[in-house]
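During the no-cost extension, the postdoctoral fellow (Dr. R.K.) reprocessed legacy sequence entries with the updated structure-token encoder. One reprocessed record is reproduced below for audit purposes.
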Amino acid sequence: MLLAVIAGCEIGFWVLLAAGMATRYLLKLPKAGLVLLAAVPLVDVVMLVASILDIHRGGEPAFKHSLAAIFIGVSVGFGHQTLKWADKWAAHYLGGAPRPVKPPKKGPERARLERAGWYRHLLSYVVGVGIMIGLGLLSGRGYDAALGPAWTWTIVLVIDAIVSFSYSFGGDSDRDEAAREKQSA
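Re-encoded structure tokens follow.
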């Protein structure tokens, strides 16, 4: 049952996001669109409540609880950014706004964006693992089973840190490249 709720919540997230954008830009009802977009986080509340109820009714901490925790963590860490991204593109495609600017491929601004992405990933991790531990403690059976996916997520988080922060210490910046082009001309 919990897996069905998780799937429904993920579908609900994208449906509410699309409905909010369509309402804002196609129907030209920005306040109604904002109401739909404000309802997007309620999907996570439903998922969390369903997980807590499953544990409270005797469910043993399992992968499905960890999956819900991961989805909620990622939503907390990346949800606002996802909404902003979708709004920019919807404004462009549906509202006639200019095309969103692509982020730079390298340089200090790219390094800043990469670090900010990793910090969002870290927030997602802390929230998700916190929920996993909380559900495990709520069950009274311990949190080992619920924390299974956390070990893989830890490895992914470390790899993401190495990649994200490598942009801060990379050799070529936009200024260095421009200087080399000027010298060769």
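The longest helix spans residues 63-95. The CA atoms of residues 81 and 120 lie 9 Å apart. The remaining legacy entries will be reprocessed before the final report is submitted.
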